[in-house]
């Protein structure tokens, strides 16, 4: 249960005494906090603090005793609640990205990259198996000639020859494809 505010504490608060304000805060802040929580405020503690920051410099002008003080504090609390609701209405609602609700009609960069890899794979498939393997190991896997030779159990000279022939064949296939497209 909240502490009751004595007449001496009220007089001290209205006179600007910090101990009087402290007593007002201890007696009335739980009710203000409960008001904000009951109204569904996310950060009710911060809004309660804002109310008492607004009330402090205006305490000297409060009239009506205990009832007048409570009325004044809750009128400030109500004004802060209205401000909070208005700010909440203007704040955009952030939602998680859901690819199932994505209505874009163009393909994503990922889809385009994977699609172009499909074209490369189809072109590479037209090379013989050894040329394709050498080019993939050298270019995609970024292995040295010696490493590829060890993997394929061939000499470095044979790997160089397969790479040269594979690149030459690939160049012809790409040139052929470009001429067909235009």
Automatic annotation (TrEMBL):
Keywords attached to this entry: DNA-binding, Sigma factor, Transcription, Transcription regulation
UniProt cross-references to Gene3D superfamilies, sorted A to Z: 1.10.1740.10, Winged helix-like DNA-binding domain superfamily/Winged helix DNA-binding domain (1.10.10.10)
Keyword DNA-binding tagged: yes
Residue stretches making up the RNA polymerase sigma-70 region domain: 124-172
Family: Belongs to the sigma-70 factor family. ECF subfamily.
NCBIfam families: sigma70-ECF
Protein name per UniProt: Sigma-70 family RNA polymerase sigma factor
Organism of provenance: Arthrobacter humicola
